[in-house]
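Worked Example 4.2. Consider the chain below.
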Amino acid sequence: MPEKPRVVIAGASGFIGPALVRSFAGDGYDVRTIGRSAADASWQDPSAIAALVDGADVLVNLAGKSVNCRYTDRGRDEILRSRVETTRALREAVAVASTPPRVWLNASTATIYRHRMDAPNTESTGEIGEGFSVDVATNWEREFFADDLPETRRVALRMAIVLGDGPATRMLVRLARLGIGGPQLDGWWPQHRRYRGIGPRPTGDGRAPHRDTRGRQRFSWVHVDDVVSAVRFLAERSDIEGVVNVVAPEASDNRTLMQTLRRIVGAPFGLPAFRWMLEPTMWVLRTESELVLKSRWVAPERLTAAGFTFAHTDLEEALRTVAGRSTGSRR
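Applying the procedure from the previous section yields the following C-alpha cells:
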C-alpha cells in the first residue's frame, strides 16, 4: 500500500489545532504534530522537527502564545518570541529538507491592519497599522517569508477573531454574562505604554487615541469550522500564495455583537461599558481592552475571488454554535 501523505501541524494544542488534526486524519492523512508536550516533536529538538518536515506534503504552523493576556513586558516579549522563533525553526527545517513540503500555511492575524471604520481592509487595499499588535504581526510575517524556498508555496493566514471554544469567544460570553454586555465605548483613560511597538523596527509609542466610535467599531470574525475549511482549500490551490485574509464576508459591529450575545446567553440587560469601567474589568479578566475597542474591519477578497464558500456567514448563527461550549471550558 502507498504511504499516507504526511501533514505536520505545529502548535496543535490550541482550539484550532485539534479541529485541523481531525479534519486531515479523517481524510486519511498521516498527521504529525510539533509542540511543547504530547507532540511527535518538541521545539527543543531541531533534528526531530527536521525529520518530520522532510517528506511532509503539507506544513501548518499555528504556534504562538495567546494574545488574550495582559501586555506586561514579559507577556509582550513572549507573544512576539513564540511566533517568530517557532516560524524561524520551521523555515530552517524546510530549507534543509531533501523533500520539502509542497505548501506551508502559517498563522498570522488580521490585527496587522489599522483601526478602520471607513472601508474594509482587503489584501490589495488594506492599510497596515502601528503599535505592539501590528509589530508582532509584521515581524511574524517577515520571518515567514524570509529567504528563498523555491519548492514550497507559502501562505500567511491573516485570521480575524476566531469564534469557537477559544479565548476570544469565552471572554465575550463572560462580559455578556457579567451584565456588562452592552457596547464597549472608548473614552479617556490614563495613558500607558503597553501598546508601544516591539521588535527590531518598532512603530508607535503606545499612546492610543481615544476614538469616539460609540460602539460602532467594526467586528470582523470567522468560525473555527471555516478556518479549517480555508486551510484545506488553500492547501490544494497551487495558484494562491502570499497573504490571505481568513474572515467571514460580512463584518458586524461591537454594538450588534454584544446585543446578539445577550440574546444568546439570556442576559436580561447589558450595561454600556465605558472605558473607565472596561479597563478595571479587563484587568480582572487578565486581558486587554484593545481586543474589543479596536475597529477590525477586514474582507476576504482573495478567498472570495477563488470561489471559497463559507459555511458560517451569519453572526448570530455562528455564535449559537459555539457560545454554549465556550462558557466553562479552558485551553
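The chain has one domain: 6-324. The chain has a mean pLDDT of 93. Compare this with Example 4.1 before moving on.
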